[in-house]
Amino acid sequence: MATPIGKGHRSLNLTLRKELGLYTNVRPRYTLHGYKTRYDDVNLVTISENTEGEYNGLEHRCCREVVKKYPEIAYEEVIIDNFCMMLMKNPSLFDVLVMPNLYGDIIGGLCAGYWWLGSDTKM
């Protein structure tokens, strides 16, 4: 189910995601109480899109529009390299992360791999 590089045909992966309505990838990350990890009280959800951005060359920046309708939602845009540093230093700064597919895959893997290391692991 490879995604072809460049233009041409649409991958089977993208076709299945569109046909089945799998437009988002929601990944909760939280501290398992009673299991010591590097950070306590992590409760974070990453949300990334599955069918746009890098998959078909289209991207719609809809977060800005939604936040205009719901001013009670705290919203901040952060450059990805600075965000990664902030996330590793203090993941409890964040509750919900909404991002394009590529960043969602990278950040999701980063969260899964790093946070579950034991507290004695040095950075």
Average the pLDDT over all residues and give the rounded result: 77
Low-confidence stretches: 118-123
Number of strands: 3
Counting copies of identical and different chains, the oligomeric state is single chain
Number of H/I helices: 4
Distance between the termini: 35 Å
Q: How are the strands of the biggest sheet laid out side by side?
A: 1-2-3
Helix content: 25-40%
Helix-strand sequence:
HEEHHEH
Largest sheet: 3 strands, mixed
Shape: globular
Radius of gyration, in angstroms, nearest whole number: 17 Å
Family: Belongs to the isocitrate and isopropylmalate dehydrogenases family.
Transmembrane segments: 93-117
Protein name: Isopropylmalate dehydrogenase-like domain-containing protein
GO molecular function: oxidoreductase activity
Please outline what is shown here:
This protein has 4 helices and 3 strands; from the N terminus they run H-E-E-H-H-E-H. By secondary structure, it is an alpha+beta fold. It has a 3-stranded mixed β-sheet with strand order 1-2-3, with helices on one face.
Structure overview:
One of its GO terms (molecular function) is oxidoreductase activity. Keywords: Membrane, Oxidoreductase, Transmembrane, Transmembrane helix. Belongs to the isocitrate and isopropylmalate dehydrogenases family. This protein is α+β, with helices and mostly antiparallel strands and 123 residues long. It contains 4 helices and 3 strands. It has a 3-stranded mixed beta sheet with strand order 1-2-3, with helices on one face. The chain has a domain of 85 residues. It starts with 11 loop residues before the first helix and ends in an 8-residue tail after the last helix.
